[in-house]
Amino acid sequence: MKLSPVLAALLLCAAAPGAFAQDTSIKPEKLTIRPHISDGPHLFVLDFGMNGSSPIYVYDTKDFKLEGSIGTGSFGQMLMSPDKKTLYTASDYLSRYTYGTVEAVIHEWDAYTLEKKREFTISPKMAQTISQTSVLNLTSDGDFLLVQNATPATSINVVDLKAGKDLVEIPTPGCWGDYPTLKGNAFTTICGDGKIVKYSFTADGKVADPAKSAQIFDPDKDPIFTHGARAGKDMIYVSYSGHLYAVDGAGDAPVVTKDFAFGEAGWAPSGNALLAYDPAAKLLFVQMHSNPSDGSHKNPAEEIWAVNLETEKVVGRSKANGETGIFLSGGDTPELFGIDYMGGAHRYEIANDGTGKLTLKNSSEHVAIFPTIAATDF
């Protein structure tokens, strides 16, 4: 009689149970979690997460080794505190992705252990927008978070960090962004009529009348990017054609302190977080692309230019690696980091000879699926 393969296997198992007995001499492995990331410098990369949550990945900057991650909700925004100890995030938690309730949540994370320190809900009017540096900022004293709202009517939600709740909603019709002033409870915002407007508020939620600048740019002929860079007392903005505006918001109303064109024929700025300022060298780094056309302001960078704000001249041009955002570290010798549209990250050394020439030190592919903004802890 011929046995089927299945029956033969069953008989073999019954005849030799010892062959499958558990070896009790093998001790189960105990899984552990590192209590904190390493002491070296790190790059925090926010992955916007087009189809769900917006995770944050933390990499060692020397070899881009992944050291940890932080989970947030959808449409995530990220901000590193000035002392590099706390990472703030703002994101939405959706009960049903295409309908249902929305819960907007502020998280405070320990930037060393990556553990949650605190969380609380804020107004669900928070803008569901691509991650950008203009929509989540701290006031100069660190007491308030400024959060961009859009329903689509625009307003700024002032969040009291000590109380862990909303303080006041400030309507900002036709305007976008919330760049805080260097002193006091105030911020400036870019408006669709070409003006920059300053809003001030008190600690108990009283709001002053808006103070408007004169028209600074023509929104129809040459609009500016909403991403700006702080350079001392001024906020720096660039237009689609390559015109630079330095705007001082310290007075009653914002005023232009510098206004010059740095671009040249066949080249124009582009990207999401396209500016980074080195205060020691007084150089503004700008992402640039060639053959500009209508809509090409979102193109990845082909070069990164260094603009001297004192001489108002381009002093250096370096090859880029398809960056959509650039970010400067702190320290005595700052480094420039770039994230590209394919999910890669790049670290550049900055020449200290006044040219702002960039030397690529290392790169890594696929640090995120859709990286939008980044920050360093040094």
Q: What report would you give on this structure?
A:
- 3% of the residues lie in helices and 47% in strands.
- GO terms for molecular function: aliphatic amine dehydrogenase activity.
**What sort of overall outline do the alpha carbons produce when their principal axes are compared?**
globular
Which parts are unreliable, with pLDDT below 50 for 5 consecutive residues or more?
none
Q: Supply Rg.
A: 25 Å
In the CATH classification, which architecture of the largest domain applies?
7 Propeller
Largest sheet: 5 strands, antiparallel
- Described by its quaternary structure, the protein is single chain
- The name CATH uses for the topology of the largest domain is Methylamine Dehydrogenase, Chain H
Query: What is the overall pLDDT average?
Result: 94
- Compute the number of structural domains: 2
Secondary-structure-derived class? mainly beta
Percent of residues in beta strands? Answer: over 45%
- DSSP, total strands: 29
What share of residues is helical? under 10%
Distance between the termini: 77 Å
Assigned CATH superfamily of the largest domain: YVTN repeat-like/Quinoprotein amine dehydrogenase
CATH class division of the largest domain = Mainly Beta
> Helix count?
1
Organism: Thioclava dalianensis
GO molecular function, one term: aliphatic amine dehydrogenase activity
Main location: periplasm
Family: Belongs to the aromatic amine dehydrogenase heavy chain family.
